[in-house]
């Protein structure tokens, strides 16, 4: 049969239930509404937005662009190039162009704000423009055209339009029909193209991969395997269709995950509703929308289109003087890298870099109260610009809450005293800033957790759907020697393709100020005891090495060659003379093992080491480069670090990559239980002694009496 009728196409594009997915989300008829909430619509009708953003003003030099400022930038751009008025020029990202660090550090509340500027990445006429708009003068003050390889972060319009392109092709429509899939059940997503050499250069390219929604919301588990489309994103034309012929579409039954829709019995006793009590209310406050004050911590927080959530100017009060001391100027997930381990057609290009290719902000759907965040949470909205430059609000995108999980922050009981009862214990209460983003099939939950002892824990948890591959096989016994090909069989006709997850964090540590920081590598060296000197034969000795240049700080972790990594300020000494410092403590981790000449790894070269330290450079924010889409790997952390610049006693930036290999298993189907990885930034001789020694324990009088649970 030929192309679907006009009526069917109309249904497809405008129908109520008929949706097209992009790599990142399912679109309804008004994609703008689902992508974020248009400001005017929001203010009138969205009960989730309780704050009137239309009159918001910036209060702090790092506050994100307000709705008014975004509208002003749009006006300036419309006067700069007529394409912004007609829609031929598109805004791919728009964010505050943060003032120089020195100005931000010197700024005090009550001072005039440094001039406000917007950093815009726009695209028109096949050219990428990195534009700076000065909001005070209302002028474009710089416009860099194609500064590096690669293209801008995709817009919602890009992915929506690309997903529709294959329908123009008779061949594609025949392929769909040959699989017995109704067009009304068809969902297509748009995986990013990667970069694989000259054939796809000089134009923006995207892939299209399709699924059936028949009988489930979880179309990700029902791929139309063997049908792969490559699309020219500018011309909106099909470049290539590969159809290897129909492969069994996995069944719908067992794929549903929505509560009340799936009929999966629960074979466990009910867990009663639970939450933390805070009879005196929360202990943190948020001033001027973005400044968080809690216990001994103070930091600036904001939603960001690309990074999702940015923590800035984190200071902790000194335990001796009570004065705030700088710990970190800026911390955020700088880039993600998720390479899939299948060299076959339709899979080889999958090596997603979600922050720079689609953005973690607009894909962070509103958090679900009581489930994403506990009852005592406070919510913060994101304000972004859409492709036409208009502001949109992402409601309840970040939550802040205090966590008490029954843990202990320090304790000791004394066993030798028979005449005194010495049992000292302190509860551990922390403050968590959380964002959860849904980049297509995957959900990533980002937590920044602050402890009163000065520790910051960053956790990334992954959940959501696997990216799966259809297969004719229903049982491992049928696979024979094909078992190792792409990944394990996790359900009938479903292979969970093996892949990695890497998240590279930009951690601009400013221990006691922006200048004068160094990386000290504290090596634990096994030492042989000279014969006859001791009953011992060997022990570990600590030796310190100061990293002089960037190559000294290209670090691969090893259990059998252990180091601690301290960022210290040698000019700020402790009472006994140690330099004030913070350690980065890696958690469980994985390394990217792809060859360095493999195209995804060339672009993902920022994962070649787990730790890097670079001198501060305001243009080096995104580990894979600003323009990472189809980039050639010419502007990334590896390239910058290979310059081998001095990093001793300077303003330096620490980069840490956490990650894990993911070999899927049946429990990951149809939706994965969360799996988490984390790292910590922990004081090391930063305080003169335990900073929470003076903290009082909880007493019975502090908390309402509750019925103690019967115990043995
Ligand atoms: Cu995974």
Describe the structure.
With 712 residues, the protein is mainly beta. It folds into 3 domains: 6-30 and 156-243, Nuclear Transport Factor 2, Chain: A, CATH 3.10.450; 36-145, Nuclear Transport Factor 2, Chain: A; 284-417 and 441-699, Beta-galactosidase, Chain A, domain 5 (Distorted Sandwich), CATH 2.70.98.20. Helix content is 11%, strand content 37%. The strands form 6 sheets. Strands 3, 18, 19, 20, 21, 22, 27, 28, 29, 30 and 33 form an 11-stranded antiparallel beta sheet that branches. Strands 12, 13, 14, 15, 16, 17, 26, 31 and 32 form a 9-stranded antiparallel beta sheet that branches. Strands 4-5-6-7 form a 4-stranded antiparallel beta sheet, with helices on one face. A hairpin with a 6-residue loop joins strand 15 and strand 16 (324-339). The longest helix has 14 residues, at 67-80. The structure holds copper (II) ion. Copper (II) ion binds at residues 462, 499, 501, 662. Copper (II) ion is lined by residues 462, 499, 501, 662.
Question: What are the defining features of this structure?
Answer:
oxidoreductase; mainly beta; 712 residues; eleven-stranded antiparallel β-sheet; Nuclear Transport Factor 2, Chain: A; globular; 33 strands; disordered N terminus; Beta-galactosidase, Chain A, domain 5; Cu_amine_oxidase; 11% helix
Query: Residue share in helices?
Result: 10-25%
The named CATH superfamily of the largest domain:
Copper amine oxidase, catalytic domain
Low-confidence stretches: 1-46
Count of DSSP strands: 33
Q: What is the structural class?
A: mainly beta
Q: Give the biggest sheet.
A: 11 strands, antiparallel
First-residue to last-residue Cα separation = 73 Å
Give Rg in angstroms.
27 Å
Estimate what percentage of residues fall within beta strands.
Answer: 35-45%
CATH topology of the largest domain: Beta-galactosidase, Chain A, domain 5
For the record, the CATH class of the largest domain is Mainly Beta
Task: Identify the overall geometry.
Answer: globular
Listed once per kind, the bound small molecules are: copper (II) ion
Number of structural units classed as domains: 3
Mean pLDDT: 91
